[in-house]
């Protein structure tokens, strides 16, 4: 059973090897295509230069991704030691980080770049809307003082009329120094009221202009078509709206009210009592002192209210910063998680296949380790072993025959050398001595 399971796993690995290579190639190509689209959105220059630069970069990314995951699929499943596998995992982590840095964010820019730019424009519109509302509120804050100023003006005017008609303050009717002073205070407050009303009209006009700019900007955000031309028009509208907000802040009447309130008390000039009798003069002086105290109190109220308005935080200067699609995707990454998931999956999905191969190869090793040696040997390996044994036997036979031949040759040489020696010896022994001449 174990042998059959191991063989089936090996056959399955062999069957999916071509599919694995095809899948790696397709994923690398897809990543390269989206990388090309992302690179084109951030490069500047002539169209030809941008085209070739994007093609070269995307091709490099595709080749790099395919080569990296091919190496990992080839080597990682066969690494068995813990240290080597940890080292391979560290290499894989570094490679994945590099792939994310050079490809995945560009893929996300291609997938969600236009939507991210529209998101940037929409949030910018919201920010400018808040700035315009705040500037408008600051400009109209002085309008809250208008009822107090109107009441004070009417009170001074009524006192002047009462004094003129019935002598309510001095006991003597007619227009005198008291009536003149009361009319003067009423006139100053009336001028301040007119200034506030004029400021309100100007602030309303600027606010209406700002609203029109915002409507144009909102229309550009939701308009169909390419986002880049819309972003250019949006930038122009944003600059114009910034000018409107600045002008709106400068229309605030609060500083003028603060100065006018100080003038009411510090610039108070009481006329000389013009009564014909000393008693009337004294009464006029007392009434004017009372008026001075009332004017000082009114001035204090207006000054405190103006200071409260002036203490409000002014609208911070805002500049619209155009972004590329890649930068917008990074800034608003949390709003485009599906696009990021798809972009990262294209690049890192081969890692899943690498781990599948590692698990299967590990299972094969465990199955084979549990089998006897005889069962682990395949027919091909057995035939190779037999062929090797025959080759070794033939080699030993040839060596043995060569040795026998060499031994036979050696014996033959020894025999020949022995025969030669015997011949020489026999000739020397059997030779008769030479006889001399006979005397």
Task: Tell me the layout of helices and strands.
Blueprint: H1 2-40, H2 47-75, H3 82-140, H4 146-166, H5 177-222, H6 227-250, H7 254-266, H8 278-310, H9 325-331, H10 337-369, H11 373-376, H12 379-430
Helix pairs in contact: 1-2, 1-3, 1-10, 2-3, 2-10, 3-5, 3-6, 3-9, 3-10, 4-5, 5-6, 5-8, 7-8
Structure description:
The protein is mainly α and 439 residues long. 82% of the residues lie in helices and 0% in strands. Mean pLDDT is 79; it is low at 424-439.
Describe the structure using short key phrases.
439 residues, single chain, mainly alpha, disordered C terminus, 12 helices
Q: How much of the polypeptide forms β-strand, as a percent range?
A: under 5%
- How many distinct beta strands? 0
Instruction: Note poorly predicted spans.
Output: 424-439
Fraction in helix? over 70%
Order of helices and strands: HHHHHHHHHHHH
Radius of gyration: 53 Å
Number of distinct helices:
12
**How far from one another are the termini?**
116 Å
Largest sheet: none
**Structural class by secondary-structure content:** mainly alpha
Shape: rod-shaped
Chain-averaged pLDDT: 79
Describe this structure in a few short sentences.
The chain has 439 residues and is an all-alpha fold. The chain is built from twelve helices and no strands.
